Amino acid sequence: MATTHNLGFPRIGAKRELKFALESYWKGQSSRDELKALGAQLRQRHWDNQAALDLVPVGDFAFYDQVLDMSFTLGNLPERVRGFHGDALDNYFRVARGRSAEGTENQGACCGGVAAGEMTKWFDTNYHYIVPEFSAATEFSLDSSRLLDQLAQARSLGVKAKLVIIGPVTYLWLGKAKDDSDKLALLPRLLPVYAKLLDELAAQGVEWVQIDEPALVTELDAAWQQAFVAAYQALKQDKVKLLLATYFGQLLENLPLALALPVQGLHLDAINARAEAEQAVAKLPAGKILSLGVINGRNIWKSDLSAVLDWLEPVHRQLGNRLWVAPSCSLLHVPVDLDSEQKLDADIRSWLAFALQKLDELQLVAKALNQGRDAVAGALADNQAAIASRRASPRVHNPAVKAAIARLDAALGRRASPYTQRAPKQAALLRLPAYPTTTIGSFPQTGDIRQARSKFRSGELDEAGYKAAMQAEIARSVREQEALGLDVLVHGEAERNDMVEYFGEQLDGYAFSQFGWVQSYGSRCVKPPILFGDISRPQAMTVAWIKYAQSLTAKPMKGMLTGPVTILNWSFVRDDQPRSVSCHQLALAIREEVLDLEKAGVRVIQIDEAALREGLPLRKSQWNEYLGWAVESFRITANGVQDETQIHTHMCYSEFNDIIASIADMDADVITIETSRSDMELLDAFDDFKYPNEIGPGVYDIHSPNIPTQEHIVQLMKKASERIPAERLWVNPDCGLKTRAWEEVIPALTNMVAAAQALRAMR
Ligand code: GLN
Ligand code: ZN
Question: Quick one: which of 633, 636, 401, 404 has its CA closest to 534?
Fold first, then answer.
């Protein structure tokens, strides 16, 4: 018999109940007991949802983040929150977000909160975890209360529990030594705490513990590989069984290591590492369990269950009871329930599976393995019909788009002349001063804007009314920018709900869910659009708005677009063609928009690639392949314009040293980037690499309500001019201003413009 289990379940709730409960608690509008009760209720519901499985994850629930949970379990709290009042949950929120609930922070020495823990992306997902903090002095001590409480709750409900924790090596790998000491040196201090935890779990009668070690899918040097050996030797015991879980990729050189670790079971991601799963079957040490992740935990497509069974049946014959089946990774990364979707097109809906549907698929696979396909013949036939319908659907396949992709030619991605020849032509046309000022695109998304949009959606406001409301907002933005004295203006993006969704909604090949929320961090969720078919652009998407904005001013108006790589990386994408092909399709569609803007007389066009870096593969050895097609896609989009048209791009992440050559390769005339938070230190990248075109290093952090002073901006720009010739520098904020209020934006930009004037006067 094959055993079924799950690695983790989305905890935010099908209706985002956890989000709303957290935000209400933080605002002081509900009590800690109410929050805890909601947590217990969600866990119970989610265990009910998984009741058909042989083993159900317990310990995967977190109020904010599972890595932060592990830090508390290991007693690794940053010094700055020790000794605070309140219970552990308050301290937990302090580390997570700088403060606990309103009201709790005013009772003692700690009013005003503390610095929140740093957040970073969980492997190659869009989930962000709180980075564990270490120093050479870090000590660990066990606090098993969270796990034991959840276990007790599970027990009382009759849940067939498998405890889930993050493994010691990955835990260290995820963290950051604040004093630059060697994190690995902490392993000997960490292991006894894990050993004690396993003892306590054994004492509770726990049989299986899933110990997550996804660091095994990354490039590990000899010391880290050795750490795995040492850790699992130290944790070797026979009281609880360990299922070592890896996911998100191939193990490659780490596969033999993983197979040899003294644990009772190993989970492999058979979606991303199918060939390795087959090798593991052949090499599995006697007595060891092999868990195969056969249902994709990262996408929203139905699995081709007959194809899964075709390869899994022989594996099952070989392994028998030693085979477990599961989703490839925790279902944290997919929405909860397709049944909530009432508005999705019926065809498209029939091709999809969210978390609950993925568990049904898993159940079906296990039943077919254990009882034969005949036992699930009807369901298998339905599945096959859905797969066949998607494969053949004219909604998915557009011959004209496929033909355009077949005709792709490198010339599409090349400007007619190099930057050195384009720049003087652009300068002659735009007549900008030195240190030209601009912004990144969006202006405050006010309550009025959101209200107009929601009234338009509900039908309360007609199209003409909505258009007039948005035009009024655009006019306001233009007026304010003229008054501020900015040089290159933007229309402000009032009409855009989201920089990806806005374009997705106007492109053929995209669908949108109502409740397809996925946790991004803490209480924040995103609802990625679903790229299901060949992409085409039925009509111009932004031209009318930009033309309107341009009609209001004699200053140059920047056309504002989201680039193909960012649209791709923030969507659920197709699994029936390589990402590169979808990206090229997007590139051709956005290219048409660029050319239409140019035709409409727009002389400056910005193409945002905020998410270019996010798409980087986990392994550096695969970066070049990705960067190759990602940069090519941008170039296809941007580079069909005349020399006189100035192309800008914007990226809002900070670490670009290691991909600076690829960024230069995009050949945008101007790039604006985030640099202010590091005091321009990021520009160190330009010491070794001479960025050839113009650059706008962000001069203030738009995430903060603080107003930058003119002096500070001048000083930052001077620092920048040590690295980049002043005649190629722009002055702009770090990112778009849509999350700020006008009352913050006006003084900040006033100082920014004054700083640019001061810089000009100094020349
Ligand atoms: N143009 C977008 C804006 O200004 C860019 C946002 C981003 O980089 N994330 O909002
Ligand atoms: Zn940005």
Answer: 401
pLDDT digits (tens, 9 = 90+) for 666-711: 999 999 998 877 778 778 888 888 899 999 999 998 888 889 999 9
- Whether the model clears a pTM of 0.90, i.e. scores above it, the answer is yes
Decide if 280 contacts 318 (C-beta within 8 A). Answer: no
- How do residues 212-234 score in pLDDT, each as one tens digit? 999 999 999 999 999 999 999 99
Q: Tell me: is residue 17 an annotated ligand-binding position.
A: yes
The two three-digit tokens of residue 168, written as one number: 């010691």
Do you know the residue count of the chain?
A: 763
Q: Whose CA is nearest to atom 8 of ligand 1?
A: 610
Range 95-101 contact pairs with CB under 8 angstroms and sequence separation of 24 or more? 95/68, 95/71, 95/130, 96/64, 96/65, 96/68, 96/130, 96/522, 97/26, 97/64, 97/522, 99/26, 100/26, 101/25, 101/26, 101/27, 101/28, 101/32
702: Cβ below 6 Å to ligand 1? Answer: no
329 in a known ligand binding site: no
Query: Rounded to whole angstroms, how far apart are CA atoms 622 and 146?
Result: 39
**DSSP H or E run through 21:** helix 17-26
Tokens 């989000």 found at? 19
> Atom 1 in ligand 1: which residue has the minimum CA distance?
441
How far does the chain reach from its first CA to its final CA, in angstroms? 78
Q: What ligand has the least distance to the C-alpha of 493?
A: 1
